[in-house]
Amino acid sequence: MRNLGNIVLVIILLLMMNHQLLGSRPHEYLGVIFILFILLHLRAGWGCFKTSFRKKQSIEHSIGIYINLLLIAVVMATIITGLLISTTMVSIIQLRGYTTILAHELHQGSAYASFILIAIHLGWHWNSIWTHLERRLRFVTGKRYYQRAKYFITSTIIGYAVYASFVNHIGDWLVMEHMISLENGSIPLKHSIDLALIFAGYIAGACVCKRIIARGI
After folding, report:
1. Average pLDDT estimate for 132-158
2. Looking at the predicted structure, is the pLDDT value of residue 183 above 50?
3. Residue 137 DSSP SS3
4. Which of 39-43, 73-77, 79-83, 141-145 has the highest mean pLDDT?
5. What is the number of H-type helices and E-type strands within the chain?
6. What SS3 class is residue 86?
7. Domain segments of the chain as ranges
8. What are the residues whose beta carbons fall under 8 Å from the beta carbon of 177, sequence distance 6 or more?
9. CB atoms < 10 A from the CB of 92, how many?
C-alpha cells in the first residue's frame, strides 16, 4: 500500500512539473493533493525517522538522514512560496512588484530542488523497494541475462538523465535563471518524457552511489 502511495506521489510530481501544460488552476489543485500525500508519507515513516537519531548509524544511513532533512526543507519552501503566489487556492495574498517575481523564482528553484531530492530520496531507499519486486520476479532474477540487462538499463538511464539535464537546463531552473510563464502554454511531449527519465536517472544514480558507499569503495 505504501509503494502504491509512492507511485501516486511520483505521478503527481511529474504532472506538476508540467506547469505550463496544465495551467495554474490544475497545478494548484494537484499541489494540494501532493501535500496530502507528503503528510501521509511522513506519518508512515516518522517512527523510523525519529529512531534514526537515537543510535549510531553507518555512513550511508547518515547521508540518508541529511538528504531527508534537506528534502523536508525544500519541500516546505516550495509549499510556502506556492501559497504566496497562489491565484486559486489562497488568492487573498496579493504580492506586488519585485516581491512577486522573487516569490515565483524561489518557488521555481525550490520545486526543481524538490524534484531532484525526491528522486534521490527514492534512490537511497530503492534497494528495499527493488528487493520486494525481485521476489515477485524470481523466475528471471537468477538468470545471467537479467543481471546484464539491469546494469545496461541502469547505466543507459543515468547517462541519458545527465544528457537531458543539460539539454533541458535543469541547472538554470535550480538557480532561478528561467522564469515560469504565467500564461498557459505547451510543453513538447519530449520534454515531459525527459523529465520522467531525468527523475529515473537520479533514482538510479542515488542507488548506485549508496551501494558504492556501503561497500567502502
Report:
1. 74
2. no
3. coil
4. 73-77
5. 10, 0
6. coil
7. 2-47+57-214
8. 169
9. 5
Q: What DSSP string describes 39-51?
A: HHHHHHHHHHHHH
Residue 171 C-alpha cell reads as 541547472
Instruction: Work out the number of other CB atoms within 10 angstroms of the CB of residue 45.
Output: 14
pLDDT tens column, 85-142: 887 777 666 666 667 778 888 898 999 999 999 999 999 888 776 666 666 666 565 5
Confidence category of residue 49, pLDDT binned at 50, 70, 90: low
Among the ranges given (28-42, 120-134, 167-181), the one the predictor scored with the smallest mean pLDDT? 167-181
* Residue 28 grid coordinates: 494548484
Cell 547517462 belongs to 159
What pLDDT does residue 94 have?
67
Q: Are 173 and 106 in contact (CB under 8 A)?
A: no
Amino acid 162: pLDDT: 93
Contacts of 103 (CB under 8 A, 6+ apart): 81, 84, 85, 95
Structural contact between residues 124 and 206, judged by C-beta atoms closer than 8 angstroms:
yes
How many angstroms separate the CA atoms of 151 and 154, rounded? 5
**Which residues, 6+ apart, have CB-to-CB distance to 106 below 8 Å?**
77, 81, 176
188 sits in the region (left: phi over 0; alpha: psi -120 to 50; else beta) called beta
